[in-house]
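input
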Amino acid sequence: MAVPRSGANVPDGKLRAVTPDAVAPIKRPYGRPRQRPAKLQADKAYDAADKRQALRQRGLTPRIARRGIESAERLGRYRWVVERTHSWLNRLRRLQIRSERRADIPVAFLQLGCALIYWNCLVNSFC
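output
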C-alpha cells in the first residue's frame, strides 16, 4: 500500500508518477521480488499520451478509459474494488474530518483503517 500526501489544491495527475514509485516491493516465494504492481487502473482524468508513456517506462500496464471512446462501465468492472475500499474508509469518521495540525497523524489513522479493512477481509473472508 502506498499513500502519497499532497495539498487539497494539487491535481491528481501530478501524483501519478509518485504513487507507483512509493509501493513497497511485493515478496514472492520464488524468483525476483516485483517492485511494483503489473497494472495501474485509472479513470478518464488520466487519459493523456504522456501519462501512459510514463507508466509504461516504469513497467506498468496502464488501464485507463479513453475519453469519448470507452464508456465508464467497462473500466467499472475493475474500479469497483477501489470505490468499495474508499467507502469502507469513509466509515471511519476520524479520516473524514481532519482537525490535526501535524501531517503524520492522519497518515497513521489511514494506515490503521487499512489494517482494519485487511483484518476484516482475513477474518470474514469477504474481500
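quick obs: The longest strand covers residues 39-42.
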